[in-house]
Amino acid sequence: MGKAILANDLFCPHTPKTRIRIERKNKNMELRDYQVECVNKIKEMKEGEKKIVQAGCGAGKTIIFSKVSSELKSRVLCVVDQDEIAEQTLQKMMIFMPREEIGIVRGNLNESERRVIITTRQSLDHNKSTRIKDILSHGDIDLTIYDEAHRGVKMCKRIAERINSKRIVGFTATPFNEEMKELYDDFIFKKPVEELIEEGYLVSPRCLTVQTDVDISSVKTVLGDYAIGELDKLVNVSYRNELIVDAYIKHASDRKHVICFAASIEHSEELAKAFREKGIVAKSIDSTLSPKERKEAIESFRRGQITVLTSVGCLTTGFDAEMTDLAIMARPTKSLALFHQMIGRVLRLWENKQDALILEITDNLTRRNKRMSLLSCKDIFNLEENETFKERNERLEREAEEERLERERIEQERLEAERIEQELILKEISLFNETVQNISGVSSLHWFFTDINKKEVAILSINGNVDYYIFKMGEEFVCLKRTQGENYTYKLEEIERSNNLKELVDTVEENAIKEGSSFISKSAKWKWEQPTPKQVQACKSNVTTKWGVHCFFSKRNCYFSLKDVI
Questions:
Q1: What is the structure's pLDDT at 374?
Q2: 396 touches 381 (CB < 8 A)
Q3: 3-state secondary structure of 267
């Protein structure tokens, strides 16, 4: 038996915890846990379902749909983004099944009779093409797979309408967007890049920011990202290009496998030139090169003969150079999909590779105050400057612990304040409870007082016939209501008892206010009027106001009512 090959070995020398083993000839393949889960979910899809698999760059998407294709015995159509990716996909699929089972439909190849077919969107989506007809002439398609499903959605939708596949699954590293809803229902599986990093399947990004004076706030937004033509005119300038090269020399000259993302082909070429002028071997990879030239340049990069590759879009997808450990973001972007694609090129595991440095070139956006519209590692991963995921997690744990301690401190302070407040309240209650005379100091109503059997009694008159009495009996305060009847009869009824004088007073006064009377008001004018001679004579005492007369008789009534009670 030959040497075992792991699913991860196609990307990195990483060994997962749990695997599923597949044997073909002299090769064994072991899938990661989540890859197995995703394979099973796709196989369980029902007819008519159109789902998305979100898996970060480096998750092994090609391995997943290659494994699915091998296990299904029905026809599978795999639609990829570029010719180079079609070739890579073929190599991955051949791990699981013989070449004779896989057909290529693009260029001069038309192996449409095979069970599993690899093609590109461009090969199928034009009016003169008969390739869809040729494919369907050999049987219906059970499953259609769209790689890089966030790209060319409208094109894929047109293809889907002509193919009429029983099931559709799209693979992407980016979140679900509105355009994708035109073709797909929802997710069937998610494995975002953050999880891949946390679980050790990718290295952590480490981000450094380089600030320029270039103002890009005036650049318009087209289809969710900066208008390339306008952007290129502003960022493709010698000052900024030289700043980028100097930043590399200063911060990352020890990194020998560097990709640099540019805003245009011209920008890519100028950046490569700027690197070469500083003695750094660099080459621009763009659509002006033939596939053979691009392949040769990438192979030279892998061997270390080229240090820096600059590119617009050729390196954002289908670029497998696991040793790449530095990405220079010389192209500002608002596109989350593009941002994920760019940084995904440098996160793959490699021998002795500790992290992936992301050099973010940050331009001026202050004119319109739109700095947050420019994506960065801080926005995506909550990474501070020069911080790895491990360091971020440690920071977040510290911050969470500090927040917890602060909450505890605040809660303790609150409880202590409540305790002190309660003590003060109890002290105030205790002081207030010493005598009913204290009522006069806190009440807005007109209480007056008398002594019966050496006990103080507080009186609140509602009118000539109704009085409230409050006095202390043991440790409690008691409130009685006296109601005068005919022929000098009266009725005493207990209203409430409490060991808190203030609460008892509040209850009595609430009732008194509801009954309404000028007697309870301190400011009633009649109270201070002179009494009649008859009233003075009746009191047999020196009274000077009508209120004094009323108090005299109320106190007398109180005495006769309570003398046998207290």
A1: 64
A2: no
A3: helix
**Residue 284 near residue 310, CB atoms below 8 Å:** yes
Residue 411, in any domain of the structure: no
Gyration radius (Cα) of the chain, Å = 43
What confidence tens digit (pLDDT) does each residue in 400-444 have?
999 999 999 999 999 999 999 988 888 877 778 888 998 988 889
In which residue ranges of the chain is pLDDT below 50?
1-27, 367-372
What is the residue whose two structure tokens read 């700095």? Answer: 371
Could you tell me the sign of the dihedral formed by the alpha carbons of 111, 112, 114, 118, in that order? Answer: positive
Angle CA(421)–CA(422)–CA(427) in degrees, nearest 5? 100
* Structural domain count of the chain: 3
Joined tokens for residue 346: 């440098």
Q: What angle do CA 59, 377, 260 make, to 5 degrees?
A: 80
Domain identity same for 482 and 373:
no
The amino acid at residue 556 is: R
Strand partners, 109: 106
Q: Can you tell me the distance from the alpha carbon of 140 to that of 349, in angstroms, rounded to the nearest whole number?
A: 39
Give the span between the Cα atoms of 503 and 76, in whole angstroms.
83
What CA–CA distances, in Å, run from 84 to 76, 283, 294?
20, 19, 10
Amino acid identity, position 129: S
d(CA 480, CA 234): 90
CATH assignment at residue 235:
3.40.50.300
Cβ atoms 338, 357 nearer than 8 A: no
Phi, psi of 465 (to 5 degrees): -115, -10
What does the DSSP 8-state code read for residue 488? G
H/E stretch holding 418: helix 389-432
Residue 221 lies in a domain: yes
pTM beyond 0.70, yes or no = no
C-alpha 231: how far from chain center: 30
